[in-house]
Every structure is written in C-alpha cells, then in structure tokens.
Design goal:
There is one protein chain. This protein is mainly alpha-helical. It is built from three helices and no strands.
Length: about 70
C-alpha cells in the first residue's frame, strides 16, 4: 500500500470513529473548527479546479493554441 492510500485509509478510519462517537453523544471536534476546515478546504478546491480547468499557466496556454490549431477548440 502506498503512502497516499494509507493516509486516505487513516483519515477514513478517524472519520468513522468520530462519527460513531458523535452518534453516541460525545462531541469530539468543535463545530466551529469543522466549519473553518470546510471553508478552507472548499476555497483550496475551487482555486485548484479553476487552475486545472482553465488555460492559465504557460503550459495551458500552449495546449489551448494546439487545440485551436487542430480545430478542437
């Protein structure tokens, strides 16, 4: 198992443990922290998605020119 798979599995296990503890009445993570974490993660995801799905970088601009030359854009 590679590092990325292992880290995803560990996060999954921690999330399941947290969900079970919340289900039986133990507040393990403050709601404010979760809201802040979701806001930061969402912002980072939107920035990454905009970067990857638009022709912003030099490499992206080159790809766009090649697509236009091939009549695909």
């Amino acid at each position: 198992m590679d590092k990325a798979s292992l880290s995803r599995f560990i996060v999954l296990v921690v999330a399941v443990i947290n969900a079970v503890l919340n289900l039986i009445g133990y507040q393990t993570i403050p709601v404010e922290f979760v809201n802040d974490l979701v806001a930061v993660a969402s912002g980072a995801w939107f920035i990454w998605a905009a970067w990857k799905n638009n022709y912003i970088s030099k490499k992206g601009q080159k790809q766009k020119r090649q697509l236009e030359q091939a009549g695909l854009k």
